[in-house]
Amino acid sequence: MALAEVTTQEPRYAIKQPFNLTPRIKWLRDYFFLGVNRAWKNDWSAWTTGTPWDLQYNEALYYIVPEAFMLLTTIKGSYRAKARAIKLPSEFWSWSIAERRAWFNKEVIVNYVPQEILPGDLLAGARFNILTSLCLDEKEAAAYEKRIMGKGGAREQATWFHDHGYGNSGATSGHLIPAHQDALKRGWKGIYEDLQNRYEKLSPKEKQGPKGAQYRAMMTAATMPRDLAVKYAALCRQHSAGENDPQRKAELEQMAANLDRVPWEPAANFWEAMQALWFNHMLIMSDENYPGAGTSLGRIDQYLFPYWQKSLDEGMDREFGKEIMKCFWFHCNTAYDAMINNGPNGITAAFGQLINLGGMDKDGNDACNDLTFAILEVIDEMSPILEPKPNVRLCRGSSEKLLDKVVEMISSSQGAPFLINFDERSMAGMMLEAKRGGYADLINESNVWDYAGVGCLENTMVGNDRSGTVDNNINLLKAVELALTGGKDMLAVTNPMTGKTSAITQDGPPTGDPALFTTWEEFWQAYAKQTEYIIQKCVQNYENTESVRAEFCPTPYLSCLVKGCAEKGMDITQGGAEINFTTLEAVTYATTVDSLLAVKYLVFDHKDCSMGELVTALKDNWAGHEVLQAKARNKAPKYGRDNDTADAMAKQVMELWTEETWKHKTISTNRQYRPGMLSWNYWISEGPILAASADGRPKGMYLSNAICPSNGADINGPTANMNSVGKVLGGKASDGKGDWLEYYNSLPNGASHTITFNPSILRDPEHRAKFKAFLRGAIENGGTALQVNMLDAEMLKDAQKHPQDYRHLLVRITGYNAYFVTVGKELQDEVIARLSHNRM
User: Which CB contacts under 8 angstroms, 24+ apart, belong to 490-494?
Assistant: First the structure.
């Protein structure tokens, strides 16, 4: 696999470059970035039972990606056409769906997908992106297709929900933290023996029922990593036999010896632990047929530290330990190969294989150790690169050493390498969900400090929690639109595929003609009623895919790694995890708040226009109403300025929709809804769908991002911005008795908060000290998390003109980072527009 020559001219502006890479790591990293030009790719391979009704592509996983809607039929047909048939055992169709899936996935991974070792690699496990048969018989496949594709089915309802501006929802995969620490300690042998013991304790009747079938499926899945390790150990020895370089020969022999033990046996040292962790993580992506999105690794510096320290004590060179980790980093990025040939769905934005670093221990002290800083060095030396995505947890007890390292890395990072979580605020949210969800026995003062983030920044517990952290994304602004129209779309909706325009109908509750409202309170009540409606609509929409997944799409391998599934004899897709939530993510929050403030200011407080005149202006997209638009933009109060009046409205909005969210559970799996704020790229893509808004925004312009103020609204600087965020999340209890210490947090899932700075603010030690103080202030008064972009607007504009010179330039979007030149111009322009903070 010779490395191709790549030549580019020097960019006008310097971008972050990797450094301190050994020849092996430099080769692997450079080879990865050859992308579609690589001879080797970990792209999706498709596999079938050979039946005419067979399906591979589970489209419901992608209902939270509305830009994929127009491609769903083509993608499904393409993978069905290219799928290779697997020879089935004669008893295959007598098994349960879970047993079929467990056997089929194991057979594909172990006996059909080729095992390969890349040059110089220190970890085995190369190909894992597979699309395998859903393993449904003819009757099951017909029922599945009817629920998805039939009249009033999941696709039709998901499309309507999105096209009418409500948002999107779908039961997707990933987005959890498996019990990796337990798997390293017990090995798959221990997991298998536990399952076997549970199965043997069942009565004969139970063995013939769903619980017995689930245990058999999980036992089959539990042997997959063992059998794959045997294949890879043999391959390492084969490579070693033909290797002339003594060092590489010894490495291959040691890799084979590692694979003789792990992941079946407990890991005994750092190299074995990293090998086992990669296999365990990699095969989750195979089991779910989902390339890594949100499949996260938890507090990696904590549970790997004993292996790290033991290996150092036994003579492992610290730099070699970092090389092993850099190989792990390379492998995580190959998850993107699944869609490498799909244009913009290739290597563009982080999938969110999140790792957590630092944070507090059980006593509230800084939990950092030598491995924490070794991992930070790996991140710094490998960046810019997308995966695994790091989340540094800060708390009151965080050391100056950690803060100094964080600020140093931020100063040169541009849009990478990490996001920051604030423990005290986040833990308050976890304690709230324990109380509201009935999980106080599983989330409490004794263990809440061990929470971790998944995906982008979503907070969950570890190893026993599936919280559907991105499954429901709702446009709060739609409720304002419906309140202004008495429950109808403001504008007729045209189907982008057919060009057909639908009639405007009564969709929401008939809350009356707003032109007849004489008080602000009347309008607020209409808005509150419409908020209840859009949340209920989202809950109904989600149930379509949640119930299908529970019935037809088991993941027995993943279920082995989530506590509760073995104990219940239930798949994770059916609610097997000990902790079961699904999350409602609010989008367009600041746009909603600012629109309500504008309605109150323009119509009721200052009487600059009547309600009818405002509605007419919005239907006209502000054309011909520019004076009124200017007042909405520049005179009406705005969230994000640390203004108590505006922030009080924002808190009222927060309390309304979060309280409504807690009222709901899924029907099929009894999962409790919980609130969060993560906008992904929806605040850009939904702009052309939602009508003009009362804050002065025209239809087509992007909306607000997660919990961030609207672009241009936060004119009082980043500290005021941060203070507003902390207030709307609940602030602090005056008596010190919040949900955690004095902290409140109404969003257990967390809230994405991005602030973009000019690099000049960290130009010298004095300014770096100020930025450290800003971070300390954020711990006290800010939100749950912070993403920092350290970017120069002129550099981004140059990258738009000369993308070939900036292909590795990373920027923060919302909880994830992306290669700037690969995202659409609308999103690029939005990032440039954020550059408003040039001083502290």
Answer: 490/615, 490/618, 490/619, 490/691, 491/619, 491/691, 491/699, 493/163, 493/164
One-letter amino acid identity for 362? K
Tokens describing residue 212: 């017995």
Element (H, E) at 340: none
Return left, alpha or beta for 292; rule: phi > 0 is left, psi -120 to 50 is alpha, else beta: left
* H helical segments located in 708-764: 718-728
Q: What is the pLDDT of residue 14?
A: 73
How many CB atoms lie under 10 A from the CB of residue 279?
Answer: 25
> Is there a contact between 489 and 619 (Cβ–Cβ < 8 Å)?
no
Helix (H) and strand (E) counts for the chain? 30, 17
Adjacent-strand bridge partners of 494: 501
Whether the Cβ atoms of residue 587 and residue 474 lie closer than 8 Å to each other = yes
Over the stretch 46-88, which tens digit does the pLDDT of each residue have?
Answer: 999 999 999 999 999 999 989 889 899 999 999 999 999 999 9
DSSP H or E run through 68? none
Q: How many residues does the chain have?
A: 840
Q: From the centroid of its chain, how far is CA 105?
A: 25
Put simply, whether the predicted model's pTM sits higher than 0.85 gets the answer yes
- Which helix (H) or strand (E) segment is 609 a member of? none
- Give alpha helix (H) positions in 126-245: 138-149, 154-163, 180-200, 204-207, 210-222, 224-241
Q: What tokens does 236 get? A: 């390492």
Q: Phi-psi region for residue 509, left (φ > 0), alpha (ψ -120 to 50) or beta?
A: beta
Distance from the Cα of residue 757 to its chain's centroid:
24
What end-to-end distance do the CA atoms of the chain give, in Å?
49
Q: With residue 773 as reference, give the H or E element that holds it.
A: helix 765-781
What pLDDT digit, counting tens, does each position of 677-686 carry?
988 778 788 9
DSSP three-state, residue 121:
coil
Query: Who contacts 424 (Cβ-Cβ below 8 Å, separation ≥6)?
Result: 395, 396, 740, 741, 743, 779
Per-residue pLDDT reduced to its tens digit, 149-181: 999 999 999 999 999 999 999 999 999 999 999
Which residue, chain included where needed, has tokens 């993308």? Answer: 803
Q: Classify residue 738 by its DSSP letter.
A: S
Identity of the residue numbered 319: E
What is the per-residue pLDDT for 410?
A: 87
**Locus of tokens 């009721």:** 604
Please tell me what DSSP assigns to residue 57: -
Q: What is the mean pLDDT of residues 564-576?
A: 98
Tokens of 451: 């929470």
For 249-263, the pLDDT digits (tens) are 999 999 999 999 999
Q: Which residues of 110-146 are buried (b: 16+ CB within 10 A; e: fewer)?
A: beebebebbebbbbbbbbbbbbbbbbbeeeebebbee
Nearest to 331 by CA among 126, 113, 180: 126
Q: Is the pLDDT of residue 691 over 80?
A: yes
Amino acid at 486: G
Give the residue among 109, 108, 106, 129 at the shortest CA–CA distance from 48.
108
Q: Looking at residue 814, what is its pLDDT?
A: 61
Classify the C-alpha dihedral 130-135-139-140 as positive or negative. negative
Instruction: Give the residue-averaged pLDDT of 593-606.
Output: 98
pLDDT in tens, 360-391: 999 999 999 999 999 999 999 998 888 998 99
Q: Which residue type sits at 22?
A: T
Q: Is the dihedral of CA 62, 65, 70, 75 positive or negative?
A: negative
Over 347-378, what HEC string results? CCECCCCEEEEECECCCCCECCCHHHHHHHHH
Q: Hunting for tokens 């088991």 — which residue is that?
A: 554
